[in-house]
Amino acid sequence: xxxxxxxxxxxxxxxxxxxxxxxxxxxxxxxxxxxxxxxxxxxxxxxxxxxxxxxxxxxxxxxxxxxxxxxxxxxxxxxxxxxxxxxxxxxxxxxxxxxxxxxxxxxxxxxxxxxxxxxxxxxxxxxxxxxxxxxxxxxxxxxxxxxxxxxxxx
Length: 154
Description:
Layout: E1 4-6, H1 9-13, E2 19-22, E3 26-27, H2 30-40, H3 45-48, H4 50-56, H5 66-71, H6 73-80, E4 81-83, E5 86-99, E6 108-121, E7 124-135, E8 143-153
InterPro entries: HotDog_dom_sf (IPR029069), MaoC-like_dom (IPR002539), NodN-like (IPR039375)
Domain MaoC-like: 12-132
Protein name: MaoC family dehydratase
């Protein structure tokens, strides 16, 4: 997929209220889960102990941390939209984030993004993006929410 290129507020405005696209699928493996556990000091067995997760867990296997699934958004977002001509970009907030389904190890996920709203705030562009992280072959998404970005164009 070729990402949409945005270089100004006017470019963003063209997509207001529209779906921006869908990323490629991304596989979440046990090594990534373990590294995330190390980085966040969250070594709960449902994430890091495959044998115990298979025998005692509710999901039949280890699961990715919810925040791990959220942390891959920049990688997947970059496949959908490339914002260029930037002085700076700020992750401003997350609204209405809901983790709807666990992502089991070796699942593939992809991001679907829609531009909910864009506003020019005296030269700073505020973009509200509705996101959904889909899990391959699952009806329910891993999460849904609205990400808010601030873009400062050159």
